[in-house]
C-alpha cells in the first residue's frame, strides 16, 4: 500500500487527536502518504479529503475533540452511499482506511471491508463499550472528568445534607458510571447491565438514611430513568432534599489524560503497522497491556464486552 486515509466518526472522544497524529506520523515514517477525511463518514461521502503532512498534526496531542471533525451519519447504512464513498477513496488512490470511533463507526468500517475495501478500526469513545479491548480512547479522560464533578457534588451535598443523583454518559454501557461510583465513593449505582427499578433504588436510599447517612451520592447511567422525576420521588418518600445533575457533554471534552494519549498513540501506530503487513478488516485493542487485533466483522457481531462483577461488588461492600 502507498496511501492511507484516516477519519474520526461518531461521538468525539479525548485522545482522538493523539490517535490521528500517530497514524499520520507512523504512516509518514514508513513512506506512506496519509489523507485526512474530514467530518467522518459524512465527509467521506462528500469527498472532503485532504493530504496530511507531518506538521498537520503538530500541537494536537494535548487537545480534546478531533481536529478532523466528526459526525453521526446514519445514511452510511445505505450500500449506495458506501459505494460513492469507496469511489471517492479510489479517486484519491487511497488503498486503506483507518477509522477511529465507536460501535457505529466500526459498523461502517466492517461494511466497507465486506465490500472489499480494507479498513482498520481503532476504538475511540468515552463509553468503553467496544468489544476486543479493555479500554477505549477517551474513557480514562471522561472518567477523570466525571470523578472531578462528583467530588464537587460531594462538597455541596455534604454541606446541605442532601441526596445528589448524577446522570452519567455511557450509552448502554455502565463502565463510566461504575468507575465513577467506585472512584468517587458514591453510595448507590445503577447501570444497564444490572436489574434496576426506581422503587428498589429508593428503598436502598431509605436504608442508607436508617443507617445514619446524612448525605448520599447516586450514580445513574443515562437512558435508565428520568433522574429529575426520580429526585422528586426520593424527596417524597424520604423527606430529604434531593437534587438531580445531568453531567451531559462536559464529559466528552477536555485535554486527554496521559493514559489516553499513550493508548491512542500505541493504537494509531499499531493500526498502520497492520496495514503495512497487509492486514485489513481488523480492529485493534489493548488487552493485558498488549496491543491485539481482531476480525472487525467478528468483533461487531460476536464478541462481547465483559462487565466487571468485581467493581459492581465493590460498589456495595464500600457502602
Ligand atoms: O458515544 C458517546 C456518547 O457521548 C454517549 O455517551 C452518548 O449517549 C452519546 O454519545 C450522545 O450523543 P450526541 O453527542 O450525538 O448527543
Automatic annotation (TrEMBL):
Primary place of residence?
cytoplasm
Q: Where does Mg(2+) bind?
A: 103
**Which residues make up the binding site for ADP?**
21-25, 154, 185-187, 211, 213-215
Keywords on this record? Allosteric enzyme, ATP-binding, Cytoplasm, Glycolysis, Kinase, Magnesium, Metal-binding, Nucleotide-binding, Transferase
Function (record text): Catalyzes the phosphorylation of D-fructose 6-phosphate to fructose 1,6-bisphosphate by ATP, the first committing step of glycolysis.
Check the record and name the Pfam families matching this protein: PFK
Chain positions recorded as ATP binding sites: 11, 72-73, 102-105
Q: Which GO terms describe its biological process?
A: canonical glycolysis; fructose 1,6-bisphosphate metabolic process; fructose 6-phosphate metabolic process
Q: Which cofactor does it need?
A: Mg(2+)
The compartments listed are: Cytoplasm
- Subunit composition and interactions: Homotetramer.
The active site annotation covers 127
Broadest EC class assigned to this enzyme = transferase
Pathway, per record: Carbohydrate degradation; glycolysis; D-glyceraldehyde 3-phosphate and glycerone phosphate from D-glucose: step 3/4
Q: Which family does it belong to?
A: Belongs to the phosphofructokinase type A (PFKA) family. ATP-dependent PFK group I subfamily. Prokaryotic clade 'B1' sub-subfamily.
Organism of this sequence: Reinekea marinisedimentorum
- Tell me the protein's name: ATP-dependent 6-phosphofructokinase
Q: Where does substrate bind?
A: 125-127, 162, 169-171, 222, 243, 249-252
Task: Enumerate the InterPro entries for this protein.
Answer: ATP_PFK (IPR022953), ATP_PFK_prok-type (IPR012003), PFKA_ATP_prok (IPR012828), Phosphofructokinase_CS (IPR015912), Phosphofructokinase_dom (IPR000023), PKF_sf (IPR035966)
Query: Key word Metal-binding present in the record?
Result: yes
Which Gene3D superfamilies does the record associate with it?
3.40.50.450, Phosphofructokinase domain
Gene that encodes it: pfkA
